[in-house]
């Protein structure tokens, strides 16, 4: 069990009706598996569709607003289940939540970790029985309910925090002209002092008191840019010092807000890389330059 980039997000999609049980989409290039899943879904009373290719699946997801649970095979020739889920979520944006159940012939630690990164609610090993199947679907329903509750409550605060962050970064510091004259060495030293001080704080106070994942992500990616390093999404999520699912939500929202850019690693298509956009990097440099100038005046 494990608990998500290629196209422009689809806009204006209808919201699913919450009073209706979510529709299930089964995606597998094996017709026999699609039929097997369909029979069990009939017994459980779910409305469902089957697709034998990722393209067919994406077309169905984007045109049917009631599809909220996707069972995807992890070994399809053109696009595996991981990429399919991320592609679907990228196209839908914030318009609809998708609960993912992944199917595999054999479950390994690597597959489980990748499942965690796409927030899969379960990994099912073929052939799977009725009990495991129904349990996975119940977990999917709980996941969708939790995401709805989060979007109605804390995610509203989340959006406000992100909006304030974007506004802050778009408001250039009065010290920006001075920051442009500061060397990369001074900027890097200031950044490392800020990161070290945040780490030091956790020795004296519970880290939960000061959770600020967006800022930690920006600091870590600024450090990587100054050092000329490429950073994976999973690595920056660890740097955020919050649960992986929370960090992934921040990464997704910050990317959609234009603060970050995310792409598939061409050397290892199993992972995504992430970096600051040029505009965000410029704002971060101005901020660090202003901090450096202020400290020198003290």
From TrEMBL:
The modification 4-aspartylphosphate is found at residue 73. Residues 23-141 form the Response regulatory domain. CDD domains: REC. It comes from the Bacteria. PROSITE patterns: RESPONSE_REGULATORY. The keyword Phosphoprotein applies. InterPro entries: Bact_response_regulator (IPR050595), CheY-like_superfamily (IPR011006), Sig_transdc_resp-reg_receiver (IPR001789), WH-like_DNA-bd_sf (IPR036388), WH_DNA-bd_sf (IPR036390). One of its GO terms (biological process) is phosphorelay signal transduction system. Keywords: Phosphoprotein. PANTHER family: RESPONSE REGULATORY DOMAIN-CONTAINING PROTEIN (PTHR44591:SF3), STRESS RESPONSE REGULATOR PROTEIN 1 (PTHR44591). This is CheY-like chemotaxis protein. It comes from Novosphingobium marinum.
């Amino acid at each position: 069990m494990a608990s998500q980039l290629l196209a422009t997000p689809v806009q204006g999609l209808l919201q699913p009706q919450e009073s209706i049980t979510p529709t299930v989409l089964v995606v597998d290039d094996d017709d026999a598996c699609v039929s097997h899943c369909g029979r069990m879904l009939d017994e459980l009373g779910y409305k469902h569709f089957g697709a034998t290719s990722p393209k067919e699946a994406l077309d169905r997801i984007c045109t049917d607003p009631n599809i909220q649970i996707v069972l995807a095979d992890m070994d399809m020739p053109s696009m595996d289940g991981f990429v399919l889920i991320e592609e679907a979520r990228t196209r839908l944006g914030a318009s609809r939540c998708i609960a993912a159940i992944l199917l595999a012939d054999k479950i390994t630690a690597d597959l489980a970790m990748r499942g965690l990164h796409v927030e899969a609610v379960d990994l099912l090993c073929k052939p799977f029985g009725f009990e495991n199947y129904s349990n996975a679907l119940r977990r999917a329903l709980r996941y969708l309910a939790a995401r709805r509750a989060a979007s109605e409550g804390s995610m509203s605060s989340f959006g406000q925090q992100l909006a304030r962050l974007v506004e802050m970064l778009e408001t250039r510091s009065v010290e920006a002209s001075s920051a442009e004259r500061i060397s990369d060495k001074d900027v890097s030293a200031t950044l490392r002092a800020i990161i070290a001080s945040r780490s030091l704080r956790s020795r004296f106070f519970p880290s939960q008191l000061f959770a600020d994942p967006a800022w930690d992500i920006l600091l870590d990616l600024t450090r990587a840019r100054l050092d000329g390093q490429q950073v994976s999404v999973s690595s920056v999520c660890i740097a955020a010092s919050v649960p992986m699912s929370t960090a992934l939500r921040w990464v997704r929202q910050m990317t959609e807000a234009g603060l970050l850019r995310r792409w598939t690693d061409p050397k290892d298509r199993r992972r995504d890389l992430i970096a600051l956009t040029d505009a965000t990097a410029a704002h971060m440099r101005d901020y660090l330059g202003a901090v450096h100038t202020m400290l020198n005046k003290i």
